[in-house]
User: Fold this.
Amino acid sequence: MEPAEAELFRLADDEYVLAERYTEWQIFAPTPESDLALANIAQDEFGHARLWYDLLQEEYDYEEPDLLWERDPADFVHSTLVELETPEGDWADTVVRGYLYDVAERLRLEALEDSSYEPIADRVPKVQGEEEYHREHAQSWLDRLTGSPDSHQHVQAAVDRLFPHALTLFAATEHEEAIVEAGVRTRSLSELREDWLDEVVPYLESLGVEIPEPETVVRSDVLGRDGTHTDDWRELHEAFTASYHELGFDEPAELRGDRA
Amino acid sequence: MSSDACAYTDYEDGEVPAGFPRTGEGATGAEAEVWDALREVEDPEMPVSIVDLGLIYDVTVEGDEAQVEMTLTYTGCPAKDMLTNDVRCAALTASGVRDASVSIQYSPPWSVEMVTDAGRDQLREFGLSV
Assistant:
């Protein structure tokens, strides 16, 4: 696999799967306002996923079914952070997940601004322009949620649960060296991880949230990036491919005869 | 605009890259015909021509093949397939054009500053403040 192709899969899969989890809040979010905001963010993430998947189709000859509907779930390379099932009704989980992801996303996009792979560099400004308010949204909710003891506890619990999975955002695969060497991404994953920690740790601590020491965190035993995933992923994958299979797109439609 | 309006909407002016918006001014022959046909295509959400919205980035006709480069106002636009199909069909109405393809570009990123003056008038008439 080409370095740019490998990077595109990380980008596209992260955005797509996160959007799938966001959409589960539709009609269930705490207020109509937050429902609309999250729907809008999900739409952006789907838009970004589409833009990266389109590029895989244009440049690397994939078809949409190969990328999503008929792809082996063990070939998806998103971080486990974005696939985890949201504990029922736990808005703090979604807010914390969004924050941890969106900061990493900004740093990654910045490292792609000067990508040697022109088609990626070309699309980054459009995507960046749409990401900014995602972080504002997450931070304005974090500020509010940490303001009362009950919801503060929910935020802390979400950080404790999600932090090890957020670290998989920066998990390297066998393509990492080639991606950096070819200049597809201008910063390495370990540099991005340092930048991310420098930003999220002081911010969350300023809200009175305790952050586990990264070096002592019990790592997730699956990384997402290498195709190993949690059981939550299997269920989510089944759910989002169900309609495709029910509609039988994988079989040619017959308008006449016994199978019509 | 000072804002007691939505704090999460950016009302700052975007930058218009040199040469944008493109409106087909100066185009000749089949290319001019394609531009004219595209002017008839409206945005699905607003009764404004996609040319006046500044969504068309380039039109070329080589032989009997038209190629249109366009953008979307935002990446998550749900009307992408519909719009690209409308654009393709419009391009095919130009005389001598037998085949047309449409590609989506995201650079330069579209902003409301790329709407033409005529487009602004129509958007205002529609009730939007631009």
